[in-house]
Amino acid sequence: MSNSNPAVVLLSGGLDSATVLAIARAEGFACHALSFRYGQRHASELRAARRVARSLGAVAHRVAGIDLRVFGGSALTSSDLAVPKHDAVEEIGGGIPVTYVPARNTIFLSFALAYAEVLGAFDIFLGVNALDYSGYPDCRPEYIAAYENMASLATKAAVEGGRRLRIHAPLLHMSKARIIERGLALGVDYALTLSCYDPTPSGATCGHCDSCLLRAKGFQELGLADPARR
User: Fold this and answer.
1) How crowded is the C-beta side of 14, counted as CA atoms within 13 Å?
2) Which of 33, 45, 97, 210 could form a disulfide with 13 if both were Cys (CB 3.0 to 4.6 A apart)?
3) In this structure, is residue 141 part of a structural domain?
């Protein structure tokens, strides 16, 4: 694919971000995938991100290093906090869970914004979802709109070039089942992805964290088996 229509795609290696990469590619963008080594408790998701980027034809895949362990405050970055586990989706509580990483999407989008400026790109894709998700405040549509407005005020490209940066969140109002259905239609191999918050060092999923349960619910609603490693 040519690099004449570049976009930055935030890629965690999970189900949602893999689907977003496939969508961006299908829309004709030259996809520059961006992942993060942010002090998360496992490296398995980065291995998954590399597999997904390669499978879906990203023209580049970069991994940025940020150590959010210096702040802690999340079960994903601190060994002092346990990842909540449940036996069913119905047991997932309300409120913002301890797996929320403070300001993570704001930080990640800021890196994506910098990368986009260097590439001459005006499109950033990310896989936030406001339906089948864990209640994170930075996955809401009003957050995405506010960040997009800020980005158009904060960059040289927007101020001097007059072009508004667009943040694409194509999964925002989709159920997990609909996301999976869309990804399968675009050729996503979900066996390559990892959605688990607490996988084993080899990448096997726990099957009981919020992310595992929401993912399993999506496949079940479609009458399909989840290819995640267990």
Assistant:
1) 23
2) 45
3) yes
User: What's the domain range around 94?
Assistant: 6-221
The Cα–Cα gap between 87 and 33 comes to: 34
Dihedral of alpha carbons 192, 39, 171, 174, sign: positive
- Is 227 inside a domain boundary? no
Chain center to CA of 42: 16
Within a domain: residue 175? yes
- pLDDT, tens digit, 9 for 90 and up, residues 184-200: 999 999 999 999 999 98
Phi, psi torsion values for 141, nearest 5 degrees:
-60, -35
**What would you report as the CA-atom Rg of the chain, rounded to the nearest whole angstrom?**
17
pTM: 0.92
Q: Is residue 26 within 8 Å of 131, Cβ to Cβ? A: no
Residue 230: inside a domain, yes or no?
no
Domain count, the chain: 1
Q: Which two tokens stand for residue 8?
A: 């930055």
